[in-house]
């Protein structure tokens, strides 16, 4: 991990610009793109090609890409109810109970924060009408792995909002099926339909609709670089929740921090992805060095040590500052997806953190709990977008319509000011439409 001592040097490393909107493909990915398309295409060019193809050819294009990208020949894009029921019957009881427990906590959290839908009017007749979206699509990564937790974390907030139909799209495994844990989670969460489609083609299918896949109003969920660029490309045709990138954790540690806990949390984040970023902000260099040594020790005990090691070596930072206040300033500058406060009287510092996706307070609050069972969605803003972004929640699945009902007395009061502004802007017909009402339509 890279050690930096002092607030200014740490700021220089942790400050990041958000102006790089198109990620660079790695050499290996570029080679894979050339092998698939026979051309040197950028990620953005690949995504645009896939989207246009799915838009024009629908299911045929989706099946073609399943063969080219996933090596799977699909006869049906949708998982039938029988397969989902069979997954529920054959699943280990422990998995089902764990997912049901997690679902209860997630559901309770979001229902407690749910905004009341319906018509909300002020005495003067103006107000808003709050309604859930009709149909949303959730993307859940898959293929070589399965993420039943992401099913719960995306679907249950939508259900709490009252969304009428939730569909789920996830890449097929090598045998042309969806992993059983994903199907179990879909059943537990109440997903209405499940599709075996991955990558940019899944985003395009949900955005435009095909013979098999219904068009949705919004697409949510994390994914690889192609999924994120596809979500960006279809925004405006549908809504999206955000552009989630590699996972991030910043741990703030004072002299009281448990070294083993800090190291374990950094490794837990690092094992997500070689591109994951792990940052320790400590108030002493000795504490930082202790955590670094403990990371090296614990690394030998975890099964995904190769991934975690790459993350820690390439994207790991040990920042040493003079005080917790300076550490909090660095957190706000960095705007991480997760921040863990491993300090005395941690609750005291929560209001000082302006920019973070989720704050984990105190030594007992393992960030890993937030990935599975704590309650808030683990779909969080990354890449510094916590400066303006929020976790996925009920509000993401509601839309607000303004309602205006002008009574006769208010019409007379408003007319003069409205016409003055209208004439200044050159809109005489606007003023006429108001004056006609004052005059009783004559």
Write the layout of secondary structure elements.
Elements: E1 2-5, H1 7-14, H2 27-37, H3 43-57, H4 59-70, E2 78-79, H5 81-90, H6 93-112, E3 118-121, E4 127-132, E5 135-139, H7 148-161, E6 165-170, H8 180-189, E7 193-196, H9 199-208, E8 218-220, H10 225-234, E9 239-240, E10 248-253, H11 259-270, E11 277-282, H12 285-299, H13 305-315, E12 316-320, H14 324-334, E13 338-342, E14 358-361, H15 367-372, E15 398-403, H16 408-424, H17 428-438
Helix pairs in contact: 1-14, 3-4, 3-9, 3-10, 5-8, 6-7, 6-8, 7-8, 9-10, 11-12, 11-13, 16-17
Descriptive notes:
The chain has helices at residues 7-14, 27-37, 43-57, 59-70, 81-90, 93-112, 148-161, 180-189, 199-208, 225-234, 259-270, 285-299, 305-315, 324-334, 367-372, 408-424, 428-438, and strands at 2-5, 78-79, 118-121, 127-132, 135-139, 165-170, 193-196, 218-220, 239-240, 248-253, 277-282, 316-320, 338-342, 358-361, 398-403. The chain is α/β, with parallel strands linked by helices. The protein has a 6-stranded parallel beta sheet, with helices on both faces. Helix 11 (259-270) links the parallel strand 10 and strand 11 (277-282). The chain is globular and about 85 Å long. The model has no long low-confidence stretch (mean pLDDT 94).
């Amino acid at each position: 991990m890279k050690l930096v001592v002092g607030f200014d040097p740490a700021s220089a490393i942790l400050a990041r610009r958000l102006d790089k909107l198109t990620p660079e493909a790695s050499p290996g990915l570029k080679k894979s793109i050339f092998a698939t398309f026979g051309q040197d295409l950028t990620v953005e060019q690949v995504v645009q090609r896939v989207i246009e193809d799915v838009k024009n050819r629908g299911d045929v294009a989706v099946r073609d890409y399943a063969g080219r990208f996933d090596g799977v020949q699909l006869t049906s894009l949708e998982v039938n109810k029988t397969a989902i029921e069979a997954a529920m019957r054959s699943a280990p009881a422990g998995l089902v109970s764990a997912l049901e427990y997690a679902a209860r906590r997630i559901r309770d959290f979001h229902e407690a924060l749910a905004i009341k839908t319906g018509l909300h009017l002020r005495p003067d007749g103006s107000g808003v009408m709050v309604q859930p979206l009709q149909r949303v699509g959730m993307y859940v990564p898959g293929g070589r792995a399965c993420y039943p937790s992401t099913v719960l974390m995306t679907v249950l907030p939508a259900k709490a909002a009252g969304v009428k139909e939730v569909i789920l799209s996830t890449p097929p495994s090598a045998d042309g099926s969806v992993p059983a844990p994903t199907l179990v989670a879909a059943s537990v969460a109440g997903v209405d339909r499940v599709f075996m489609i991955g990558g940019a083609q899944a985003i395009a299918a949900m955005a435009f609709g095909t013979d098999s896949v219904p068009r949705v109003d919004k697409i949510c969920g994390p994914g690889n670089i192609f999924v994120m660029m596809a979500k960006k490309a279809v925004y405006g045709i549908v809504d999206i929740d955000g552009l989630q990138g590699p996972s991030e954790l910043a741990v703030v540690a004072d002299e009281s921090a448990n070294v083993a806990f800090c190291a374990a949390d950094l490794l837990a984040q690092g094992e997500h992805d070689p591109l994951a970023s792990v940052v320790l902000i400590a108030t002493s260099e000795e504490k930082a060095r202790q955590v670094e040594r403990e990371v090296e020790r614990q690394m030998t005990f975890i099964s995904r040590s190769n991934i975690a090691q790459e993350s820690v070596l390439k994207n790991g930072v040990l920042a040493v500052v003079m005080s917790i206040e300076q550490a909090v300033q660095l957190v706000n500058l960095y705007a991480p997806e997760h921040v863990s406060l491993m300090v005395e009287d941690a609750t005291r510092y929560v209001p000082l953190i302006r920019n973070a996706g989720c704050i984990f307070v105190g030594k007992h609050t393992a960030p890993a709990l937030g990935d599975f069972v704590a309650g808030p969605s683990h779909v969080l803003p990354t890449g510094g977008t916590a400066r303006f972004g929020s976790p996925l929640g009920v509000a993401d699945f509601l839309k607000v319509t303004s309602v205006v009902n002008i009574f006769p007395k208010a019409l007379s009061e408003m007319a003069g000011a409205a016409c003055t502004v209208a004439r200044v802007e050159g809109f005489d017909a606007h003023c006429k439409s108001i004056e006609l009402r004052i005059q009783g339509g004559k």
